[in-house]
Design a protein that fits this description.
Distance between the termini: 72 Å
Largest sheet: 7 strands, mixed
Strand content: 15-25%
Amino acid sequence: MSVLELRVPSVGESITEVTLSQWLKPDGSFVRMDESLCEFESDKATLEFPAEASGKLIHVAREGDDLEIGALIAKLDTSVTESASTPTGTTSKMPAKESPEPQVLTSSSHAKDHPSPAAAKMMREQGLSTSDVIGTGKDGRITQQDVAKADQPASESARIPDPAPTPVKASAPSYFSRGEHREKMTRMRRTIAKRLVSAKNNTAMLTTFNEVDLSEIFALRKKHQDAFVKKYGIKLGFMSLFAKACAQALLDMPEVNARIDGDDLIYHDYADISIAISTPTGLVVPPVRNVESMALHEIELAIKDLAEKARTGKLSLEEMSGGTFTITNGGVFGSMMSTPIINEPQSAILGMHAIKERPVVVDGQIVIRPMMYLAMSYDHRVIDGSSSVTFLVKVKELLEDPVRFILGI
């Protein structure tokens, strides 16, 4: 018997611990070299762990365990061949004359109808079981998109009428329930909580507010949207316009684009803007690099790519690192006003909010305009109050006259 020990690999310079979120291969199964055995959840991303050789898999760690780098995860009995391997706990009870064909565990046997970690969370929240969802991912894996489709109500024509209700004795309404349950926080949620508290405790954080009239942005998108989509295959959204305006303002005011390192201030002559993306496991802020040098369609495509990877758990550690400034858009959820928390070690974050038509005074006349409140939280150790206000006014002016930042003036 030849046993190979499988240990948690190094997954990043700053990561010392991971969580075993899900086994992809059952205990006692035969696995081939490079097949994915399990998924790890780190502070920043979900990673698959491949087999280092072929053999019989013996679980050591359990799902949900927190494991340090180098900790033992499983063992592989490399002396076992595929033809000699059978799934754990299975015995043949058929008569000898009806001997079944040898059962081979394929790479898709465990993945089929098995949800990814993010999909499993969605299923728990929506009260769905694996029988309610059809997996369309690799090897039949259930993805977030599959769960979303399963949660959509059926069309009226496809619905089966409910049987007549059976009279039952009156009972207490469900809203009098006092049930509760406990769930372990995911590693990402724990990391988010730790960093937010750190930002509140370790920075001199203030927030300044302004409002922006988006009439010109609306007119620009209405006039050129069709041509933009036809040429680049993607819509011109608000995020790229805001990112481009912020990038120009950051280069004009390098003190907002700086960070503290010990007793020094580090200034950046580029704008790597982190975009806050909501995922089923928490908020992530991957950066779009060198926004100051990108065209609007390039920014849109970069944001779309990062958002898709974030929501499917495919962001790499490199894609999650860095950033000199952050933009978060609570407006997509209906927020009218907020005080966003700084994304350390950055020194400032811009909060976008819902666009509402409101009466405003323009040239002495009351008119209805699409307005948005802007909020910028900043570290007062790095950025003076006057600088924060000036920066936000610059962003406001650029958005109210978008031709200026498109022309770079």
